[in-house]
């Protein structure tokens, strides 16, 4: 009986801490977003830092995105091919693979990979700058840390997340075509024709629109936890962990919300 009381008390305390952490994160991230928007249109503009972050956060993530998208295309073709073949529907593989990758798997898996690589990198870098008082030094020199640190990373993710998703879509569909040729014996011309004709502009728009929001969530979450880092190297590790977990959860949640919203708009 006593152990049950302790367990219930622990669960209530844990739930209360999570609720407080959620409200702190929601309020802090919204405040950071509003501050970023207000500072975005005020000089000076650090275009060089923006280009540097596009390379660091985007171009250097191409190999990770390539491997993820290619393996996704392989698995999708194999699973749907062997499953549909039992019902005589193997020829529907190009349509299913193309639509699944374009609408869901391409955007979501790409941004989840970016949340792990980019989100952790942003939180660790800014957190290290924070605990070593480099951000205080930037303020002492009369420079706004938001403009120099946050805005280049946010803009870079807004640009590179959709571009990487388009790259992942192409790689994933090509991977699906390769497996369809070698394992399912589907003609590549037929795969390309069926895959392209079954897709609509809304399928492409839905996937790319999602990644704009996902890129914003990844960059803002990383910057938020980086700027709030305390406690030396241990605090940097905790900030990195929180940034990855939080951005991944937000991606999954907002993926459902946006999919449902687009589904309602398509039916209306």
Description of the structure:
The structure is a single chain. This protein has 268 residues and is mostly helical. It has one domain. It is 87% helix and 0% strand. It contains 9 helices and no strands. It has helices at 2-40, 47-58, 62-85, 93-131, 134-140, 145-182, 188-197, 201-227, 232-267. Helix 2 (47-58) packs parallel to helix 6 (145-182) and helix 4 runs antiparallel to helix 6 (145-182). The longest helix is centred in the N-terminal third of the chain and has 39 residues, at 2-40. The protein is globular and about 65 Å long. The mean pLDDT is 86.
Q: Strand pairing plus helix content: what structural class?
A: mainly alpha
Total domains? 1
Distance between the termini: 55 Å
Query: What spatial form do the alpha-carbon principal axes imply?
Result: globular
Helix and strand pattern: HHHHHHHHH
Would you count the extended β strands for me?
A: 0
Mean pLDDT: 86
Produce a short descriptive summary.
The protein is an all-alpha fold.
């Amino acid at each position: 009986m006593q152990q049950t009381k302790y367990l219930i008390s622990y669960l209530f305390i844990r739930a209360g801490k999570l609720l407080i952490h959620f409200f702190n994160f929601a309020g802090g991230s919204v405040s950071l977003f509003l501050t970023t928007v207000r500072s975005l249109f005020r000089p000076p503009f650090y275009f060089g830092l923006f280009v540097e972050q596009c390379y660091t956060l985007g171009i250097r993530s191409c190999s990770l995105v390539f491997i993820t998208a290619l393996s996704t295309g392989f698995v999708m073709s194999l699973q749907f091919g062997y499953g549909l073949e039992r019902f005589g529907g193997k020829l529907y593989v190009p349509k299913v693979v193309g639509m699944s990758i374009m609408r869901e798997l391409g955007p979501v898996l790409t941004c989840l990979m970016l949340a792990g690589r980019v989100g952790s990198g942003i939180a660790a870098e800014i957190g290290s700058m924070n605990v070593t008082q480099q951000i205080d030094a930037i303020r002492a020199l009369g420079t706004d840390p938001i403009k120099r640190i946050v805005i280049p990373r946010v803009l870079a993710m807004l640009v590179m997340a959709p571009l990487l998703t388009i790259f992942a879509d192409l790689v994933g569909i090509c991977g699906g075509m390769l497996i369809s040729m070698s394992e399912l014996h589907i003609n590549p011309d037929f795969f390309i024709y069926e895959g392209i004709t079954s897709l609509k502009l809304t399928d492409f728009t839905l996937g790319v629109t999602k990644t704009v929001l996902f890129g914003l969530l990844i960059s803002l979450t990383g910057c938020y936890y980086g700027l709030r880092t305390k406690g030396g190297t241990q605090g940097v590790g905790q900030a990195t962990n929180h940034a990855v977990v939080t951005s991944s959860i937000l991606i999954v949640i907002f993926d459902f919300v946006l999919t449902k919203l687009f589904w309602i708009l398509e039916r209306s």
